[in-house]
Design a protein that fits this description.
The chain is mainly alpha-helical. The radius of gyration is 12 Å and the shape is globular. The chain has one domain (12-70). It has helices spanning 12-24, 29-42, 47-54, 58-70.
Length: 83
């Protein structure tokens, strides 16, 4: 398995904020959908394990990781792409 370019290392504050975002569910479903793979990836799960656990596509997981690492972690979970 190739080594990941974007490794997620969450602080305890970031992890707690993401957990609260998922738990409350008062945010857009898109943010909640993107927070789940970030939490699982930070816990050490592989992309394949995340896909199986969340029943989402591999592209969802692969695109979320770089967005979270490169952008502001909590304020800019990937927005919907313009069509």
């Amino acid at each position: 398995m190739p080594r990941k370019k974007y490794l997620l290392d969450l602080s305890s504050d970031e992890r707690e904020e993401l957990r609260q975002l998922v738990k409350r569910g008062k945010h857009s479903s898109r943010k909640v959908t993107r927070a789940h793979p970030v939490l699982l990836a930070a816990a050490g799960s592989t992309d394949e394990q995340i896909v199986a656990a969340l029943s989402c596509g591999i592209n969802t997981v692969e695109r979320t990781r770089p967005h979270f690492v490169e952008e502001c972690p909590l304020c800019s979970l990937p927005p919907r792409c313009a069509r």
